[in-house]
Amino acid sequence: MNVATRMKYILSLGLIILIALIGAACSQRESGEQVDQVTGYITDIQDQEILLSAGPDGQPPMWFSNVPSSLEVGQKVTVIPDARAPVSLEMPSHLMAKKVNVIAQASDLPAKLTEQEAVQQAIRDVGFPYYAIDELTYSSADATWYVRVREWVNEVFNSEHDEAVKTIVVQDR
């Protein structure tokens, strides 16, 4: 085998290995095995863990431990999971938080209730065990918060039935 043929063979083998590694990395990312960060509303707090609502982008609901004790239901947060910690396979999954950032609420609204208080009131009327808060809007014309939620069932959003998506009306009092 001459040098040119040997170099082609080595380069071809190297390219195949590189493509295989890139494919494996992409499939790991697509399967959800590693999540960089998740954003959602805190819908429940139990035993020093927070339940983050499912995201409108298809992110499932998740429990997070190792969170600050100052967090409250209704806050919108971004959580960076600890990639080194074990993950439970149950749904919703239980992960350990590496960092939690509370997202600042809009302060320019003429509302009496804060965004967090509106979410807290809406949560009482959701009626689904797991759900996404798809949209939160305030109408100054009728002094009302509108919280649109979508049910999360069996690892997917339930959108086949009208009852699976509803808008909860919270009066600004």
From TrEMBL:
This is DUF3221 domain-containing protein. It comes from Cohnella hashimotonis.
